[in-house]
Amino acid sequence: MSLDVPAALLERAEAGKVDDAEFVDCVRRSLPYAWAVVSDVAARAHATSADYADHAVPPPSEAERGQLLRALASDAIRGGLERHFGVKLAFQNCHRVAAFKLAAVGGETYRRFISPVAQIRNQSPELRDC
User: What sign for the dihedral angle of Cα 118, 57, 68, 18?
Assistant: First the structure.
C-alpha cells in the first residue's frame, strides 16, 4: 500500500467526503521522503526568478525511491501535491523532480524539460535500472 490511511479517513472516503487538505496530509505522513523533495523544490521554485527548481540527487535507498515513484506516478497524489504547493511537477529518471511555476507551464523551458530529448540526455548507465 502506498499510503497509510487512518481508519477515520478511509471511512470518510467511502462516504465520498475527503477534502484536499486531508488527502495531502495523508500523503505527507505516508510518503515523508517524497514530501520533503517536493516541498523543497516547490519552495525553491517560488523563491527564484527562474522558471523552476529541481532535485537530482538519487534517493538514499530503494524505499525512498519507491516513495518518489508512488507520489509522482499517481495522478491523485501528484495532483494533490501540485495544488497544495501551487506548482506543476515534472519527473525524469527515477529521481529527478522539478517544480515549475504555473506561469512557466507551456513555455520553452518547460517544454524543453519534459521533451524526449531531455529524457534521453538525462540517462546514464548508472540510472538504467533505477
Answer: negative
